[in-house]
Design brief:
Layout (H helix, E strand, L loop, with lengths): L3 E12 L2 E12 L3 E5 L6 H8 L7 E6 L2 E3 L4 H6 L2 E4 L11 H5 L6 E2 L2 E2 L1 H14 L15 H13 L6 E5 L7 H16 L3 E5 L3 H7 L2 E6 L2 E7 L5 H9 L19 E9 L4 E8 L3 E5 L6 H8 L7 E6 L2 E3 L4 H6 L2 E4 L3 H5 L6 H6 L14 H14 L16 H14 L4 E5 L7 H16 L3 E5 L3 H7 L2 E6 L2 E7 L5 H8 L6
Helix pairs in contact: 13-14
Length: 499
Amino acid sequence: MGDTILKMSGIQKYFPGVHALDDAYLEVRAGEVMALVGENGAGKSTLMKILTGIYPKDGGTIEYFGQEIELHGPKDAQDKGICIVHQELNLMQDLTVAENIYIGRESTKGPFLDKAAQNKMTEDLLNSLNLHIPARTQVKRLTVAKQQMVEIAKALSYQNTKILIMDEPSTALTTSEIEDLFKFIRRLKATGVGIIYISHRMDELKQITDRITVMRDGQYVDTVNTEETSIDQVVQMMVGRVIYEEPKSHSNVPPDAEVVLEAEHLVSNDVKDVSFRLRKGEILGFAGLMGAGRTETMRLLCGADKRDGGTIKVQGKEVKITSPKDAVNAGIGYLSEDRKLFGLCLGLSVADNTALPSLDMLSGPLFVDDNKISKATGEHVEKLRIKTPTIKTLIRSLSGGNQQKVVIAKWLYRDCDVLIFDEPTKGIDVGAKSEIYKLMNQLASEGKSIIMISSELPELLRMSDRVVVMCEGRVTGELDIAEATQERIMTYATRREVG
């Protein structure tokens, strides 16, 4: 690691009624990966928005290469060599790689665009980064991992990049794609770029970071050397308490427990003859690499996609599910992987979101009963410990963990017996994860049956009673939790044929 290139000291930020940052601190050295961690609401995003010129600071100093600076907007930050790769990709899908990288800075020849020169510049840039991506390819034809690399290349195309902020860069990547990303980060480190790496995946910190800065409640807690600090210590600094999730060594479900859901020979464009059973009180994990067909299978169960074959039985009786409404009526609730797109209406309140699947139960002959909605929402806010100023607060202003709890609340009020959790802890912090885990275990102990899709193998091994493994649209293995290991799951997840 080299000299200090960035030091943010005593940073203050106020919003109406909120002291978002109180004496925040961050130091980054040349050629290091500095992890920035903390629970949702800890102040990480606010601090990064100040560093990238989106928000003005209300106090403190920013030193850049030893000189105190002021940032007057995102362009000013980029011109100074401070760039960010956002968690949610901002690429334009119908444009080429070259067009995305140089949008707003296009090459011209007289009054005309010089696409040949722009493509050549892009190829030179990608080659310098050892990225083998054709400059003329439409972005929508790239995998998510390669789109992530294009985002990084776009940030580095400013040529003078000295600080690169990576916000949850591995969220949508497979294990092998994450390994490629880490190789790329290590090459980038060698050029002297300082990298700020934000992630909720604690296991990644040991693999890729040099130091870790911890924030809690808008304040700086500490900066530690990664190799000298355990992940448990980091978590305790983040949440102010010890969190330990004991791995599940055996199933909590009796082998003769009632079968509440049966899927038999499900078929669609992406699902190839999938069958499985779910028992009462069971947490059934679904594992597989990206594109294995796990989400596609669940979308057949909840009527979101057209089923070309197969049957679905609930409580031993075949049910016809051709729409999400049919699934809800059959007692199946689906918590989508993308809660913001499919699970919530961000412009509506906590109460409105909780009530949406149950409006038929909360309405009179002519009008929706607001008193019933308020009472039902209040009960679930208390039961699930949802942190919200009021039930009328817009859902978009809640943290990711609390948004996820509202999605759970709406299906609990509907009293669904089968709950499908698709990546239930995606994008939420370790403290909120622990709460979601406890809630899922509580629901299972109360007799609810849960299907959980997760790309995090430790999460599957911690929560599941059984694990079904898929590859290329087929079930390739099924493991009782007592015999499941990461190695065995990955063996089945890469088995292209059943047998």
